[in-house]
Amino acid sequence: MELQIDHKSSIPFHKQAEELIRRLIDEPEYRDGQYLPKEVDLSEQLKISRNTLRQAINTLVTEGLLVRKKGVGTRVQKKKIFSGVSNWLSFSEEMRILGIEIYNFELQIFRHEVSAEVAAFFNIEVSTKVMRLERLRGKKNAPFVYFISEFNPKIPISASENFNRPLYEILETDYGVIALTSKEEISAAAADAFIASKLEIKQGEPILIRKRYVYDINNNPIEYNVGCYRADSFTYTIESKRNI
């Protein structure tokens, strides 16, 4: 297919490139894990800088559509089957609906240098420091989840906030940032020594990892969140209907 950026359009080049690559990876020759053309070739074809092209590719990597292989290139992610729900709730809302009173056993907030994954999500440099909130939460006398939240550096959230309030209430009321969309991944893992000590389980015992990429009403990334749950405390239920 022909790839062409409209240089007269008001749509940013990286957004145009992102849409063109989305179409490209739906082509039969790329659908099942094939490598994209080299960045230098793609940027020349589109007549944009490699940094602009990388911005588009980073978005698709974050969404799980592309995979980067250092020294090899960028390939299309093989198609996976995902189950999901169209509506989502914050942790506080979920617990309120279940009638569970939640306690914060530990809470710390500090500036932290982001990982490559978080940098790609926020489209920032890996050396950038962002605000990181860590909380051990659970029922009375029974912690069952350790949360790590990292925030877009454009949101001036501070350590002086009262984090006993719901997080998205803080973002909306204090900063005018409305959380709208959450892309969620759920996986299983063995607890490392740190998480095991927090959740009061043995190292190596199974935990459930729930990762959320949260966006505002303008589709800007605002929060990267990882929750590590005791396996005996969390069940994720999905109800779906078959098209007939």
From TrEMBL:
Protein name: GntR family transcriptional regulator
GO molecular function: DNA binding; DNA-binding transcription factor activity
Keywords: DNA-binding, Transcription, Transcription regulation
Superkingdom of this protein's organism: Bacteria
CDD domains listed in its UniProt record: WHTH_GntR
Pfam families the UniProt entry points to: GntR (PF00392), UTRA (PF07702)
GO biological process, alphabetically ordered: negative regulation of DNA-templated transcription
Annotated HTH gntR-type domain residues: 11-79
